[in-house]
Design brief:
It is built from three helices and four strands. The protein is α+β, with helices and mostly antiparallel strands. The longest helix has 13 residues, at about 25-40.
């Protein structure tokens, strides 16, 4: 059971893992896998299970004048995007603590920042701590 939403763990492929992210695209899997493996974590990515189908509604009683057979309307087929759940074998891993505690490094030696983790920046910045940035 998770301590809070930021510290989840479960079994992925039969191995107890700390959950890094859920419902991520294959491109994001590659980014996080390379970053976490560079930081000496063993990464496991599994396809996200399909959502559970809703129960079918109960059939309505048919009145006598509605006895004409009507074909059922075709059910729309919606292709869900393929997503993955990423975990690391260190089940104590917490992504929030790892980012803000400056525990992860980029391949070029900088600390991983929130912007880098979210793929909004190309490189982490070591010079200014998060709380020292000026807004505006």
């Amino acid at each position: 059971m998770a301590i809070n939403k930021n510290h989840e763990f479960e079994e992925l492929d039969g191995v107890k893992c700390g959950i890094v992210e859920r419902n991520v695209s294959p491109v994001r899997v590659q980014f996080l896998k390379s970053l976490l493996e560079f930081n000496k974590f063993t990464v496991i990515a599994v396809p996200t299970p399909a959502p559970k189908a809703a129960a079918l509604p109960a059939p309505k009683p048919v009145a006598e004048e509605e006895t004409q057979p009507h074909p059922p309307p075709p059910m729309p087929v919606v292709a869900l995007p393929k997503t993955f759940t990423i975990g690391v074998t260190d089940y104590t891993f917490n992504p929030v603590n790892a980012i803000f505690g400056r525990l992860l490094k980029t391949p070029d030696g900088h600390f991983v920042t929130l912007g880098y983790w979210q793929e909004k920046q190309n490189v982490g910045h070591d010079e200014v701590p998060y709380f020292g940035e000026k807004a505006g």
